[in-house]
Design brief:
mainly alpha; elongated; single chain
């Protein structure tokens, strides 16, 4: 099970345009993503930690 399958199983992925392409990308190389928060900002809270915990996997 790759990370995409696990996130889908957990309900974290609602929709995707190219599952095969994303699977190939994840299996072949590392990929950059945008999380949407500023880790140096003063308005971070514990809920912002979840995407980073998922990314660590």
């Amino acid at each position: 099970m790759n990370i995409l399958d696990e996130l889908k199983w957990r309900g974290a992925i609602n929709q995707e345009t190219d599952h095969e392409g994303l699977t190939d990308l994840v299996n072949k190389q590392s990929a950059g993503i945008y999380v949407g928060i500023d880790p140096t900002g003063d308005s971070m809270h514990i809920g912002h930690l979840i995407p980073f915990m998922i990314l660590k996997r």
